[in-house]
Amino acid sequence: MANENWIDVGAATELSATPLRRVKAGDRELALSFKDGRFGVVSNTCNHVGGPLGDGTLAGDYINCPWHNWKFHRCTGLGEPGFEEDAVPAFAVKVENGRVLVDMASATKRTRKPHAPHPLSRKIERAAGPVRVAGIATSPMDEANPRFSGSDHLLRHALASCAAHGAESRMIRLSELKFRACEGYYSKAAHACTWPCSITQMDESDQMDRVYEALVHWADAIIVATPIRWGAASSLYFKMAERLNCVQNAITIRDQVLIRNKVAGFIIVGGQDNIQGVAGQMLGFFAELGFIFPQFPYVAHSRGWSSEDMERNVELVRASAELAEGAAMLARRCIDLAARLIAQDEAPTTIERGGRKAHTLEMEKDKRMAAEA
């Protein structure tokens, strides 16, 4: 028939040896599957953010996208039960003379079920009002049996001082939150690591959204407090930092700077010394997110390698008026700088890329979904 366009995509014996793979028909990438003696062919591009369906897995008759686990029927292209309105193009397929042929003129329409945008994806606009300071406490502990934490203690002093400078403050304790560890979406592909975070979008019970809301939308300044654990920041700090990769990656994949005119300071407390190493990691990481630092951006306390009498260390921190005053003055420096940045509003919305970690990806922007819509 005149409206058919059959293209040979390979030998049936070879293509039937693998349940699911990518194939090319002309300049079009397809996901070809083989199950129960039957081939199925659909578009290789997932409806969600363009994941490669042919690199996924088969779950019954459904292709499981390797990026974020969206599912589409391998022959009809329809979404899984309850999500049939989400459909990728499907193609007629046949075997002739041992060759697999795909009719490119038979493509069904790509359809998208309306999905309400995630609240975090809203436009970033600073609400009018005083400078707002978010304190992030990263000290791990059993919330049912709390203990004294020197870093938490000094963070509370810093936040308590904010009101005297006309600023609002809010404390987030990571040990109170239930949030999943980063599951390595960036390791699958840069475009698989999305803003808002893929986990946050898919799991309503994940409480990392409270950190994202504070850092991206609410706060003008943040103070991150951590204990030192074997020469490094706490495990909860790194669990949070890994989940913040989606903020930095928005620059890489969309040239979208989410952190603008925002200040960061740090409180570091350890029984053993590696303060400058810990501070250097934190400064480097938050600089890549887009935060700006006041002069002297951290306060710290440590008694050194040979001082293992932690009970004494706890009492020193608890009773130290000097450390409490230092934390309060750090908050003052952060507030003052944040107020100037808000007034000037000079932070870039995009960034020159050469030499940065988030250098422009060496690939063309994906236009396949728009072409197929």
Number of helices: 11
Mean pLDDT: 91
pLDDT under 50 segments (min length 5)?
363-368
Report, as a whole number of angstroms, the end-to-end distance.
25 Å
Largest sheet features: 6 strands, antiparallel
H-E string: EHEEEEEEEEEHEHHHEHHEHEHHH
Radius of gyration, in Å, reads: 26 Å
Q: What fraction, in percent, of the residue positions are helical?
A: 25-40%
The share of residues in extended strands comes to: 15-25%
Principal-axis shape equals: elongated
User: Total strand count, please?
Assistant: 14
- Could you give the order of strands across the largest sheet? 1-9-8-4-3-2
Structural class: alpha/beta
Describe this structure in words.
The chain is of the alpha/beta class and 373 residues long. The chain is built from 11 helices and 14 strands. The strands form 3 sheets. Strands 1-9-8-4-3-2 form a 6-stranded antiparallel beta sheet. The protein has a 5-stranded parallel beta sheet with strand order 11-10-12-13-14, sandwiched between helices. It has a 3-stranded antiparallel beta sheet with strand order 5-6-7, with no helix packed on it. Helix 2 packs across helix 10 (321-344). It is elongated, with a radius of gyration of 26 Å. Residues 363-368 have low confidence and may be disordered.
